[in-house]
UniProtKB/TrEMBL annotation:
Protein name per the record: Predicted dehydrogenase
Taxonomic lineage of the native organism: Bacteria, Bacillati, Actinomycetota, Actinomycetes, Micrococcales
Segments forming domain Gfo/Idh/MocA-like oxidoreductase N-terminal: 11-138
Taxonomy, superkingdom: Bacteria
Domain GFO/IDH/MocA-like oxidoreductase: 148-293
Stretch list, region Disordered: 384-398
Keyword terms, alphabetized: NAD, Oxidoreductase
Any one GO molecular function term: oxidoreductase activity
Xref: Pfam families: GFO_IDH_MocA, GFO_IDH_MocA_C3
Length: 398
């Protein structure tokens, strides 16, 4: 268990400082300013491969120091938590080394690039937990207030037993064939494409909200653009600038699959970065025996609830504006009604993690949860490769 009490800090060392690194930095900085925390996060050191870029990121994002070798973080006494914000091909090496060095770990999603790596990470996390060293995977959207409220309402039985789930994660930053390559299009670095990058979120959210797990899938994967411009310097994380020459895309552009849930329900999933006009549309609709619930991240402060018990003439979807103090996380922020954005999920993730570490309880989602999502992704790939054959998902995560 971490030492707690007034004035005690949690020294954070972060690896990687691109899009996710910036989102996590903002969370570490803001969390103690809006939430009462038992430990105050201290942004001790950030690591990156290139010296000048890492020095500049440390200054811009507010880190006290910087290193070009992440291993240096593991031997520092002032670092108690390692935050892994690198591409998936380095997650296993960094997270396992950090846990073995006695550091708590927060690791970006998906947990790994393969089930084998995820199994090693989950095993390392179980060993570390015996010594009070804890690990969590960053499925951040669980911490969107409307999503957390949806889970509460489903658990309270407001829509009855889950029959059908419709889950989509739609973006369009790759719809233009001239959008350049990046690590997210390289199987070696990313493991898979839309499937692991954003489909993993859809799987986690469907399971989180329903409290159920997928038992099997039948899937299609498609790559529409096989060759793209090599990226030049400049541009943002997702919207790069094309340079000289082209290179191959080695991951899927889109994933579509059917699934069964262990509570008897059925589900459809869609993940694509090619859906023109859809920017960050994480859409979930869940139909139960007593009602329905619907969410779209592009209107993220709203949750729609339909209750079949409502009087017929006025029955309809109720639009809940999730901005009131008794909604999850919301009370710590602005006066009622003012709404939150993309970055707040990362702040809530940091808050929940710090509280779990201070209590010595397992933060969620655990590496075992990350491994289970990895098994779903793997089953989707195997099903698609075998012509969409039904593929069962092993569930021996713990
Ligand atoms: C790119 O599709 C991406 O940055 C994902 O990698 C993140 O997990 C998601 O939050 C936003 O989109």
């Amino acid at each position: 268990m971490s030492e707690t009490g007034p004035g005690t800090t949690l020294g954070v060392g972060m690896v990687g400082h691109a899009f996710m690194g910036a989102a996590h930095s903002q969370a570490w900085r803001v969390a103690p300013r809006f939430f009462d925390l038992p430990l105050t996060p201290r942004m001790v050191v950030v690591a990156g491969r290139r010296a000048e870029a890492t020095r500049a990121a440390a200054e811009r994002l507010g880190w006290d120091g910087w290193e070009t070798d992440w291993r240096k973080l593991l031997v520092r006494d002032d670092v108690q938590l390692v935050d892994v914000c690198t591409p998936g091909d380095t997650h296993a090496e960094i997270a396992i080394a950090a846990l073995e060095a006695g550091k708590h770990v927060l690791c970006e999603k998906p947990l790994a690039n393969t089930v084998a790596e995820a199994e090693q990470m989950a095993a390392a996390a179980r060993r570390a937990a015996e010594h009070g060293v804890l690990a969590m995977v960053g499925f951040t959207y669980r911490r969107v207030p409307a999503v957390a409220l949806a889970r509460q309402l489903v658990a309270e039985g407001r829509i009855g037993a889950v029959r059908q789930v419709r889950a989509q994660y739609l973006q369009d930053w790759l719809a233009d064939p001239s959008s350049p390559l990046s690590w997210r299009l390289d199987k070696q670095k990313a493991g898979s494409g839309a499937l692991g990058d954003i489909g993993a979120h859809a799987v986690d959210l469907a399971q989180f909200i329903t409290g159920e797990r997928l038992t099997g899938v039948s899937a299609l994967l498609e790559t529409f653009v096989h060759e793209r411009p090599v990226a030049a310097e400049g541009g943002s994380a997702l919207h790069g600038v094309g340079g000289q020459g082209t290179g191959p895309v080695t991951v899927d552009d889109a994933a579509v699959f059917l699934a069964r849930l262990d509570g008897g329900g059925i589900a459809t999933f869609e993940a694509t970065r090619m859906a023109w006009g859809r920017k960050n549309a994480i859409r979930l609709e869940i139909n139960g025996t007593a009602g329905s619930i619907a969410f779209d991240f592009e209107d993220m402060n709203v949750l729609h609830l339909y209750e079949a018990s409502d009087e017929g003439r006025t029955a309809g979807f109720r639009r809940i504006y999730v901005t009131e103090p008794d909604h999850p996380y919301v009370g710590a922020w602005w006066p009622a009604g003012h709404g939150l954005g993309y970055e707040h999920g990362f702040v809530h993730q940091a808050v929940d993690l710090v509280r779990a570490l201070a209590d010595g309880t397992q933060p969620e989602p655990s590496f075992d949860d990350g491994l289970q999502v990895q098994r779903v992704l793997d089953a989707v790939e195997r099903s698609a490769a075998a012509g969409s054959t039904w593929t069962a998902i092993e569930d021996d995560a713990s």
